[in-house]
Sequence to fold (604 residues):
Amino acid sequence: MIKEQGAVPAPERKPSGFSHLVLHLHPKLVPAAALPLPLTFGLGGASAVLFLVLAVTGALLLVVYEPSPERAYGTVARLVDEVPFGALVRNAHHWAANGLVLVTLLHLLRVFYRGGHLPPRRGNWFVGVALLLLVVGCAFTGYLLPWDQLAFWAVTISTGMLEYVPAIGSTLLRAARGGADVGPTTLARFFVLHVAILPIALLVLLALHFWLVRKVGGVILPVQVGDRASPRGALVPTSPHLTQREGAAALVVMAAVMLAAALWNAPLLAQANPGMSPNPAKAPWYFMGLQELLVHLHPVLGAVVLPLLGIGLLLALPVLGGPERPSGRWFGSPRGARHALVAAIAAVLATAAAIVANEPFRTGKPWLGTIPAGVRSGALPLALAAMVLLGVAWLSRRRGASRQEAVQAAFTFALASFAVLTVVGVVFRGPGMALGLP
Amino acid sequence: MTGSPAIEPTAPGRRDFLGRLGKGLGVLAAVELLAVVVAYLAPGRSGGARGAGLVVAGPVGEFTPASVRAFPGGRFYLVRLADGGFLALSSKCTHLGCTVPWNEKQGNFPCPCHASTFDRRGDVLAPPATRALDLFPVVIEGGIVKVDTSRRIERARFEPGQVTYL
Fold:
């Protein structure tokens, strides 16, 4: 990572209008050590490019789409069947949106595993978590708009989770749907959120996100990069060194989106039919981990407590590790990487085993049938999960990990477990939510 | 700041008061705006006029005992139990709101979304659903079965008092 430290500065040339524009985002000079791809994998930049692709394709879709239950499906079908390149634009929007959810998540993980969530970048971590939630919100509100069977039932079950919020659940549900059921008012609300309110919020927070990155002096660097005199190592002009790399990366991202759009169509099932749920009816993939949990657990735990704890954990990560400063290395140290890997493998095995073991009890006579459901599938699993996570952290600490690395191991366990739930939900759940091969 | 001494405040208390008044009015205006937005977005009362959701199912004789008939338009199943009693079960799963189909062979309602199962009286056979299917009131007038779909009755489990007899 330090091999480019001695990179020769590019010959001086007059900055173009383009570089002037770019230099509003970037400083004039950047550390040579910040340039290699494996430092960040360009995930933040890729997210920004995907956001732009979504804005452009979204504007094109808006010209054709009409947000009413009578017209929505017809306009989407017309877009796909008749409008020149309509299917391509819709596919590009679809794949860019799914890509954005995935890339934002990977970006968050990259930042976490390099210690970018710790001071002095802690404030920006919180902004980043808010951005992730907004991205998921954008994707989810967009999911309803085609008004096909997939959209209608995914949104029905996803919003249905709100009903389990204690005390204010039914109020929240009615507020989200604009009525008791998913209907015209739901479509109107989701449409406005999707095309105006959430993107504007996203844009404002994105500006703050960028500004905070620049204010802290750019991306996190490996500590060994500089010396006492210049702790950030050699500096090179942003243009062309950084801008050319960013330009190339942006082209790669756009090419990937267009390739996916050309190869795979975004799904469009039959028009929404409130009288018939498809079997199986599944939520969007980024909620499938939750839906899988809901198959096994008490709804209050699966739909309310665990999601809130998950977001709480993300927000607490910078604090849990104590006052340690980031080392700038992946996973803190080789030991940190080892512990995270072991935790991930353990989580994959344990979660898969738990899902398979619970399968006979899920539909048949419940396990520990004499205990009330709230304890049996609510309090007990929650206590068990908390014990497992604390156990992972404790074990990691006992094996010589720093506090930060122990937190990292426990988080990795939770993350890998959620990933397994998502994969099982997406791939291995067939009709009637029965386990089976795809 | 650089004003002439002539307009220098003689009573600092008055300036403080006006400042606080301004802030207070600002907060009040913000609260009012918020209330307007909330009221604007609050879902209207659905159902409309009394009796608007009344579905005429048909004469009693059309429903043989121990049978289940779907009314997709009214989003309910009219169940006639073996003892001749009627139950109108909402077809909306109490777990997350999917529409449950009737499985004649198994004699139950299996939810396609999360595999909750309900028996013909709406009771939970298999979780994750935690309560029985909702009911709609059944009225039998002059040998005609009518179901009031505007009044949804939530219940924990089946009880004999919920059945309507001739």
The CA atoms of residues 12 and 18 of chain B lie 10 Å apart. Chain B has one helix and ten strands.
